[in-house]
Amino acid sequence: MHITPLSGSRAEIGEAHGRAHAGLITHSLEVYDRLFQDFVGLDWTRARREAGRFLPMIERGFPAILEEMDGIARGAGLDFEDILTLNCRSEISLTQASGGCSAFALNRDGTQWLAQNWDWRTDQLHNVVALEISGHDAPALISIGEAGMVAKIGMNEHGLGVCLNAIRSRTCGEGLPIHIALRKILESRDMESAVAVATRDRVCSPAHFLVASQESQAVGLEVQPGEPGRLPPERGMVTHTNHLYARTVSPRVEDFPRPDSRTRLARLDALLLERLPPRGEIDEGELFAILGDHDGEPLSICRHFNPEQPPEERMETLFSVVMNLTKRRLTLRHGKPCESDESLTIQFGDE
Questions:
Q1: CATH class in words for 98-347
Q2: Domain-by-domain residue ranges, the chain?
Q3: Is residue 99 over pLDDT 70?
């Protein structure tokens, strides 16, 4: 896997993204057409109409990103409405589809780490892209996500990073769609402005954003249309899977987690406490080993395809990311972390 550099104005960034990954973007539309039909009974035409209701929210909270989305459509030879629908896919399918995903922030001996597995449908494996975006009006950033989408998981040149855990819920209100909000966080220059995306702009449907910075700050934000729940570090760690547990959010928002979410969270906590030395340096390899854990398989942190599960539960790990925010270094393993030591490493500045 390689990284795609994108630079210039919003329109230029979008058009270059669309041209570079036109085939993958078209394939993503086909994947989500099937997913919307399977999960919520919408064909692509109806899903496009559903996505239109989020347009005023984006115009209010992050209008600049619309120019980039229009550029993606132009570069890929698609309609703007197709790219809008792709970037609102979580909101359209939120009542049924939830990914796996296990994420953690860890501070050890002055180094701030941020890491996660992204678990999703097998047919999106080859539509994963790594984008390095250098715009005229925002910090340079790296986003690892799906072709045609403006952001997902990543880090910017200021050493600020974000991870994502899907939350299955029927709640949907006013605010930015999840993937639009993730991009706005990645364009934030500090933790205060990143957290403001959740507290001021708000996010229209529930998710968990794990935000950390090279200044050894970290917070879990259980975002939703109201005030987000906050999860501060305990023993230098914030961990999350796919259920709500911040006391201020969980009584007010109903979620429908996968049955393995709590056991994966408990396993993640245990591994971070038991497998890593309490003092001294650690490296990316040790953290990828935790993300590659198979305890409780097939419902483990590292997930493999399991045909015996119901179709809506057949998720597998499509990529793993470990970020050393102190050194502004991101390392990606495409596919399962247990299957390959081959990594793509991107760093801002000198080590």
A1: alpha beta
A2: 98-347
A3: no
